[in-house]
C-alpha cells in the first residue's frame, strides 16, 4: 500500500467509525445550532444588537462545538491499541495523524460550515457577508482541528484529561476567534477584510507545520 493509499484508508476508516457512532457527528452540530438559536431568545427583540454580535456568536459557538468533539480524536484508538499500530507502521506518523485530523474535520468542521449560512441569516447578517463568513470558517475550523490534535495527543493517556485539554487549546484558539469574527464584522460594515483572511491563511499553514513537527516523533 502506498502512502497516499494509507492516508485515505485512515480517513475512510475514521469516517466509517463516525457513521457507526452518529452521536459524534450529531452532538457538536446540535450544540452549535442550540447555542446560536438561544442567543436571540435571551437578548429579546433587539435585531440591531443581535446582528452586531452575530459574528462573535457564530464563531464562539463553532469553537466550543469543536472542543466538544476533540477528546474522541484519539481516545478510541488509544483504548483499543490502534494508535500504537499507527505509530509502529512503516509510514510517517505525521501523515497518518494528519489523515485522522482530516477525518475529524470532515465529521465536525464541515457540518458546521454547511449549516452556518442558515444560522447567519437567522441572526440577521446580510447576504453579502455570507461569503466572508464561509471563507473564515473554511480557513479557521481546520486550524481548530489541527491545534486541538496536539492538545489531545498530550492528554490522551490521562484518565480525565478533558479539563487539561481545554486549558491547553483554548488560549491557542483565541487568535482564530479574534481575526475570524473581526473579518465578518468588518465585512458587514463594507470594509476590506483581506488582512484578516491572510492572517487566517497563515495560521492554517502554521498549524499544518506545527502539527507535522509535533507528530514526527509520535503521539
UniProtKB/TrEMBL annotation:
This is Heme exporter protein B. The keyword Transmembrane helix applies. It is a multi-pass membrane protein. Belongs to the CcmB/CycW/HelB family. GO terms for molecular function: heme transmembrane transporter activity. Required for the export of heme to the periplasm for the biogenesis of c-type cytochromes. The chain crosses the membrane at residues 25-43, 49-74, 112-130, 137-158, 164-184, 191-214. It comes from the Bacteria. Pfam families: CcmB. Keywords: Cell inner membrane, Cell membrane, Cytochrome c-type biogenesis, Membrane, Transmembrane, Transmembrane helix, Transport. GO terms for biological process: cytochrome c biosynthetic process; cytochrome complex assembly. Its main location: membrane. One of its GO terms (cellular component) is plasma membrane. NCBIfam families: ccmB. It is found in: Cell inner membrane. The lineage of its organism: Bacteria, Pseudomonadati, Pseudomonadota, Gammaproteobacteria, Methylococcales. It comes from Methylocucumis oryzae.
Amino acid at each position: 500500500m502506498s502512502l497516499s493509499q494509507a492516508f485515505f484508508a485512515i480517513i475512510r476508516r475514521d469516517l466509517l467509525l463516525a457513521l457507526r457512532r452518529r452521536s459524534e457527528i450529531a452532538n457538536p452540530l446540535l450544540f452549535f445550532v442550540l447555542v446560536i438559536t438561544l442567543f436571540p431568545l435571551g437578548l429579546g427583540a433587539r435585531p440591531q444588537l443581535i446582528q452586531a454580535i452575530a459574528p462573535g456568536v457564530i464563531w464562539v459557538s463553532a469553537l466550543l462545538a469543536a472542543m466538544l468533539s476533540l477528546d474522541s480524536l484519539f481516545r478510541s484508538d488509544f483504548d483499543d491499541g490502534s494508535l500504537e499500530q499507527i505509530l509502529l507502521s512503516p509510514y510517517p506518523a505525521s501523515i497518518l495523524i494528519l489523515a485522522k485530523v482530516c477525518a475529524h474535520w470532515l465529521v465536525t468542521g464541515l457540518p458546521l460550515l454547511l449549516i452556518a449560512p442558515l444560522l447567519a441569516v437567522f441572526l440577521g447578517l446580510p447576504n453579502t457577508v455570507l461569503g466572508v463568513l464561509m471563507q473564515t470558517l473554511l480557513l479557521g475550523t481546520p486550524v481548530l482541528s489541527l491545534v486541538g490534535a496536539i492538545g489531545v495527543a498530550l492528554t490522551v493517556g490521562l484518565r480525565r484529561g478533558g479539563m487539561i485539554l481545554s486549558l491547553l487549546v483554548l488560549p491557542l484558539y483565541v487568535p482564530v476567534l479574534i481575526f475570524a469574527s473581526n473579518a465578518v464584522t468588518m465585512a458587514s460594515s463594507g470594509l476590506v477584510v483581506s488582512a484578516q483572511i491572510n492572517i487566517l491563511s497563515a495560521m492554517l499553514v502554521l498549524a499544518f507545520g506545527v502539527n507535522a513537527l509535533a507528530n514526527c516523533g509520535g503521539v
